Amino acid sequence: MPQNHLTLAGRVALVTGGARGIGFAIAEKLIQHGAKVVVADSGGAIDGSSPDPSVLQEAIDRLGKHSLGCQLDIGSADAAQTAVAAAVDQWGRLDIVINNAAILRDHFIFKAKEADFEEVIRVNLAGYYYVLAAAAPILRGQAKRADQDSPYTWGRVVNIVSTAGFYGNYGQSSYASSKSGIFGLTRAAALDLARAKITVNAIAPFARSRVTEMIVPANEEQAIYKERALRIKPQSVASMVYWLCSERAQGISGQLFGVRGREVFLFSQPRPVRQFTMESTEAPLDELAEKAEENFRDSYTELVTDLESFNSKPLV
After folding, report:
1. Which terminus in the chain has less CB density within 10 A, N or C?
2. Is 3-269 a domain of CATH 3.40.1350.10?
3. Residue range 120-134: average pLDDT?
4. How much is the pTM?
């Protein structure tokens, strides 16, 4: 590793869901480049049940002395405050927030269970919000205290999302809703924190994780996707996170990226692509239908899942 590899020296990060998979790879990468990392994780199963402190302890043992474990369920304001306070109490500051914790409880919408939907939203979306709400005052305070000769260039937030949030997937109405909501949160937080020069971005990862392991293919094409996805190591996602947390990414905020092995994507964001004008605000059905056919017919988004859209061979 080159001599300047400690580019995050003196920085403190919080990684939720950092005890396994993509979260662990991110925590490991940040530590490799000089950061100290609080890992917040319940150690629970993919559906959020059965919290296990030994999972977190094993991760901390592997990450070493520059890591600190915080065993909790991140889906509450109190838990988020505890995780943020752990960083400040241990190392006196917090510079980087990686929201990664997520659970999965899949059901077709016609078999949906209200309690499962609420739990997924609580952990995957509300948990991200609670962490940001707890961390933002710390990040802004550090920005305000920065010396004029040494401007603040370190406030970083990276939210891990999923292409399921904007493509959709079978049986994932709750998971997709939570991940789509996270990107809305990303945009709003990026605007709120822009004046303090704190960046907020989102990454949709393609890599081996408990989520990809849980995929139940709905067709042969999805089975091929799963087989390919399980071959992609999470380190490529960690490298992308590291870049966004470095000074080299200071001017980048409010963006949505994807990482699949050696491939890096910048996604477009929903903006109007076509329009037409009606004769009146109470246009008859025929006018609306005919103008929609004329103007929109070739611009509708295809109804396919993310698994079909990204079912090409990844570059690993």
Report:
1. N
2. no
3. 98
4. 0.93
